[in-house]
Design a protein that fits this description.
Layout lengths: L1 H10 L3 H11 L16 E5 L2 E4 L4 E4 L2 H4 L8 H11 L13 H13 L6 E5 L2 H18 L6 E5 L8 H5 L17 E4 L7 H11 L3 E6 L3 E2 L5 E2 L2 H13 L3 E5 L23 E4 L11 E5 L1 H5 L20 H15 L1 H21 L5 E7 L2 E6 L10 H12 L2 E2 L6 E4 L7 H17 L5
Parallel strand pairs: 3-15, 5-6, 5-7, 7-10, 10-11
Antiparallel strand pairs: 1-2, 2-3, 4-12, 8-9, 11-12, 13-14, 14-16
The structure holds pyridoxal-5'-phosphate.
């Protein structure tokens, strides 16, 4: 009887009804609930598209916050997760292991720089960063050395937990917690002019610094800010010479986003630690990974229990997430996917050329499947910039999910987007730019 009633209720759910019920009980991320626009109930995802409960479809060109690689509800990933769900859904990862975790670690390590030799599992990007920071800080501690400072980039974003917030650039996002964050020295992203002063800065701090954490080549949340491979390589070389551990946060850039499997594939210098999440499972299940060198790992081997890395999450190496990651990586390595990534990259680069002649566009840029440009706005680039909100609504009306970061408009599409679909998105961007040209 109860079940029948529930079914009846579900069938009569209208969009307004669901929005109302949502508002009564849910608190959404990065959302000012007082002034938020009506949120959209989604009932189905397929490939590039998301469908709302009134049948309208949207192109998800931000890959649902940069996580979806092969499109929504991918049948192969679904199949593999389903099989795993019927075999082993979860097991404590202290004292136990399972095939999907071993295989995933083996497969991932094969694709990373050869100094990456151990895998530590967690459940999201922020925790992957927390683990990396704890590895570096405790490394020093285990050797009886005190290193309390950390180096990070201005404008960095590494997540929302306290450690991750500490190493993220100071902004209004972290303002309320300012006094609770640990000591971080923020440096500029490298360019040929500032490399020597960065060298001096790092040299002077090297004894007190536990590690340097950075988003390689693209600072995503800061507004898709990009910097050069050679300059990052030079900076990494300085860190290596000064014996400062490097944590390369590939949470966003990993798994093909920048045109290569990892940004590590652009670099000759090797990081000591790497962080992954977002595209790791193709965007289907939450999972985080921190990999490290044996140098780091060995510093925790001891007969003294105090030197253990005391960190773990209930869902460490969850078998379902491992199965999703294995399936997603198989898809990623297929020639077809690799060709799609190159094609998107080529199309982006042509569109960047077109954008450079649009007067209301500044800093058109791209790397791999990531494209971004600034909408020229009088008040400067800022998340608060109202133009972002207006553009968001306009693109939604046109059936496209774009989420400008202030006046920075960007595309991070899933790799299954076709050439025609991408051209359609470009065309709409040009139309919207024309439509809003008198606004600023
Ligand atoms: C998104 C992001 C994180 C945080 O990941 P969550 O899963 O959202 O906690 C960390 N680092 C980078 C570079 C990111 O883009």
């Amino acid at each position: 009887m109860l079940l029948e009633n529930n079914e009846l209720e579900m069938n009569t759910t209208t969009q307004a009804n669901l929005q109302q019920r949502d508002r009564a009980v849910n608190w959404h991320p990065y959302t000012q609930m007082k002034t938020a626009d009506e949120i959209i109930p989604i009932v189905k995802g397929q490939g590039l598209y998301l469908y709302d409960n009134e049948g309208k479809k949207y192109m998800d060109v931000v890959s649902s916050w940069w996580v979806t690689l092969h499109g929504h509800a991918h049948p192969y990933i679904a199949q593999r997760v389903f099989e795993q769900l019927n075999t082993l859904e979860q097991v404590i990862f202290a004292g136990f292991t399972h095939e999907p975790a071993v295989l995933l670690s083996e497969n991932l390590l094969k694709l990373l720089p050869e100094n990456q030799e151990k895998v530590f599992y967690s459940d999201n990007g922020s925790t992957a960063v927390e683990v990396a920071l704890k590895m570096c800080i405790q490394y020093a501690h285990n050797q009886g050395v005190k290193k309390t400072k950390i180096l990070a980039f201005k404008n960095a974003y590494h997540g929302d937990t306290f450690g991750a917030m500490s190493v993220s650039g100071k902004s209004f996002w972290t303002k309320p917690f300012e006094n609770m964050l640990f000591e971080v020295v923020f440096i500029d992203t490298p360019n040929p002019e500032n490399l020597e002063s960065l060298r001096l800065q790092i040299k002077n701090l090297a004894d007190e610094v536990a590690c340097f954490i950075y988003e390689p080549l693209v600072q995503g949340a800061a507004g898709m800010l990009m910097y050069d491979v050679e300059d990052l390589n030079s900076l990494m070389q300085i860190c290596r010479e000064e014996k400062v551990f490097m944590i390369q946060d590939e949470v966003f850039t990993g798994f093909g986003r920048t045109g290569k499997l990892f940004t590590a594939d652009y670099l000759t210098e090797k990081p000591d630690i790497m962080c992954f999440s977002k595209g790791l499972t193709g965007g289907t299940m939450p999972m985080g990974i921190t990999t490290c060198s044996n140098d780091i790992y060995n510093a925790f081997l001891s007969d003294d229990r105090h030197k253990t890395l005391f960190h773990g999450h209930s869902f460490t190496a969850n078998p379902l997430a491992c199965a999703a990651a294995l399936a997603s990586m198989e898809l990623l390595l297929k020639e077809e996917t690799q060709m799609n990534i190159s094609r998107i990259s080529r199309q982006h680069s042509e569109f960047v050329r077109k954008l450079t002649v649009v007067p209301q566009v500044e800093n058109a840029r791209h790397i791999g499947t990531i494209l971004a440009f600034d909408f020229k706005a009088g008040s400067g680039t800022s998340y608060f910039n109202e133009i972002g909100k207006k553009l968001y609504q306009e693109f939604l009306k046109r059936g496209m999910i774009m989420r400008p970061l202030g006046n920075v408009i960007y595309l991070v599409p899933p790799y299954c987007i076709t050439s025609e679909e991408l051209d359609f998105v470009y065309q709409n961007i040009l139309e919207v730019l024309e439509q809003f040209k008198n606004e600023y």
